[in-house]
Amino acid sequence: MKKIILKNLTLRNFRGEKEKTVNFNTDKETSVYGANGVGKTRLYDAFMWLLFGKDTQDRKDYNVRTIEGNEPLHRVECSVSAILLIDNEEINIKRAFNEKWIKPRGQDKEIFKGNETECFWNDVPITVTDYQKRINEIVNETVFKMITNPHYFVNMKWQYQREHLFQIAGTVSDEEIIRNNPELSILLDKISGKSFADFKKELLARKRRLKEELEQIQPKIDQTQKLMPEEVDFAALEWQIKEIENEIAKIDKAILDKTEASRQNYEAIQKKQSEINTLKQQQQKLLFEAQNKERENVFLLNSKRQEIVNNILTLDNEVKKFKQDIEFLEKDVNEKTKAIEEYKKEIAELRKRWFEENSIEFKGENTCQLCGQQLPESMKKDAERLFYELKKEKLAKITTDGVQVKNKIAELEKNISETQKNIENKQAEVLEKEKLILSLRNELSIIPVLSEKTIIKEEISGYMELSEQIEVLEAEIKVLESGSMIDTGELKIKKQHLQNELSKLQIELSNRDLIKKYKEEIKQLEQQGKELAQAIATAEGEEFLIRKFTKIKINECESRINNLFSFVTFRLFDYTLEGDEIETCVSLVNGVPFDVANTAGQINAGLDIINTLVKFYGVSAPIFIDRRESVNELIPTQSQIINLIVTKDKFLNVE
Fold first, then answer.
1. Is 490 helix (H, G, I), strand (E, B) or coil?
2. Which of 154, 176, 440, 475 is 20 to 30 Å from 487 at the Cα level?
3. Domain harbouring 265, CATH code
4. Residue 213 and residue 532 in contact, taking contact as beta carbons nearer than 8 Å
5. What pLDDT sits at residue 484?
6. pLDDT in the model for residue 84
7. Which residues have a Cβ under 8 Å from the Cβ of 330 and sit 6 or more positions away?
C-alpha cells in the first residue's frame, strides 16, 4: 500500500495569500479553522494546482495570482511548494507561475511577454512534462481526486461511477448466474453463443414481428372472403359451353371448305411471283458483272497516266528541297563573305597601327616626371632600353593579331569554296530533274483521260430473254388474280358471336377454381394464425426467463458491489413502466439518495467510498473534508485527514 502524506504546504502570492506555510500532522488529523473567505478551501486548491496545474474545479491556471486593486500583482513569484512523505520518503516539490518580461533592442522599458510555468523536484528545476510524469508515477490524477475529496466520486457522471464500481467488484458472468439457478439453463440452448443483451434484442424484435404478422392474418382472411365469387350451378355451365363449342366446330368446317380453293389459288400466285423474283435477281447479276468489267478496263487504261503524275509530283518535291538547300547555302556564303570584308578592314587597321608604332623614336626623356630634376646617366640609358623593349613587344603583339585574323580569313575562304562547290552540285541536280519533269509532262500530254461508259441493259447478252420470261409470268398472275373470290364473311361473324358468348361462360366456370383457391388460402391463413399465436406464447415464455435472469443478475451485481462498502450502497438498475430494466448508478445513504442525505451522512459516505478505492488502487492520500463542523464523528480511514472547519476566526488557525 502506497501512502502519501502532506507534511507542509507553502503559498506565495497564490490567490490572495502573499506568503504562508501550513504544517500538517502526519500521524493524526489536522484541523484548519477560520471564517468563510479566509482561505481554507484555498489550501486544497493550492495542493491540487501544485500536483496537476488545476484547482478543485478542474480549471487550469485559473486566477492563481494574487489580485490587488483589480489587477494581479506583477513581477512577483506566484508559487506553491510542499513537502510530501511517500512511504516515509521525504520529497520537496514546487510549481511556480511566473511572468516573462523582456527588453526589446533599442527600447528603455521591458514589456510583458506572457506567463511560464516552472517546476522543481527536491529543489532541482525540471521541465513541466518531466514533473507531471513523476507525479503520475506516484498517483493517477483521477484516482488522486477520488481518494482525496469525499464528494468527487458521487459527483462524477453516473456512467463513470458505474464503470469504476464494476471494475472494483468485477462483473458477474451469465454462466455463473445460470449455474446457480438451474431453471434458467434452457436459455443456454436458445442463446447459442450470443450475449444475453443481444438475445434479448433479438427476442423483442422477434416478438414484435410475430405480433405484427398475427395482426395481419384476420384482415387478409376478410379480404380473401370479399374477393371470393358467389357459387353457381357449374355443371349447367359446362353443358352450355360444350354445346357452343360444337356449333363453332361446324362453322369452322364450312369456312375451311370454302377457303381451300382460295388457298390453292394463292399458293399458285406465290410460286409464280417467286419465279419472277429469281429472274429479276439474274438480271441484276448480269448488270453488275457488266459494270464491274467496264470499271476494270478503264482503271487499267488510266493506271499508266496516274503513274506518270505520281512521278512528276515526287520530282517536284525533290526540286523544291534542292532549291531550299541552295538558298540556305547561298545565305551562308554571303554571311561569310561579309565576315571576310570585316576581317580585311581589321587587318588594314592593324597594319596602320604597326607603321605608326614603328615610326615612334626615343626622344631622350631625361627629366623625372615627379620632381622635375635631371635623371642620372645610368637611369637615362635604362629609360632608352626600356622604351625600345616596350616598342618591340607592341609591334610583336600587332603582328600576332594580324596573323590570327589572316588565318580566320583563310578558313572562311576555304569554307566558301567548299560551299560553292556544293551549290553547283545541287544546281546541276535541279537542272537534271527539271529536264526529267519536262519530259514526263510531254509524255502525259499525249495520253488521254478515259471515263466509264454507261451500260445499256438491252445490249447485255441474255438480259432481254429474262425480261420476256418475266412478262409471261406476270400475265399468268393477273389471270389467277382475276378469278372469283370466295366469301366467308357471314360465317365468320356468326363464329365471333359464339366465341364471345363462350368466353363469358368460361370466365364464369373459372370462378370454380378461384373459389377453391380462396378457400385454401383462408385455411392456410387460419393455420398460420395458430402457429403465430403459439410462437408468441413461446417468445413470451423466453421473455419471462430473461426477465428472471436479469433480475437475479441485477441483485447479484448490486449485492457484490454493495458488500464492498459499509456505509453507502448503490442502486445500479432502474425500471421502466413496462418493467424493463435500465442502467443507472445512484448512491444511497441509509436508503436515501446521496443528495438528500445530511452533510454528515454525505461526508461519511464519501469516506466509505474512498476507503474502498484506496484498498483497490493500493494508494492513500490526504483527504480534505470541507464543512467538517457538520460532522460529529467520522468513520475510520487509513488516509491522512485534513478538516476544513468554519469558525468566526478572521485568520487561519491550524491544529
1. helix
2. 475
3. 1.10.287.510
4. yes
5. 47
6. 94
7. 423
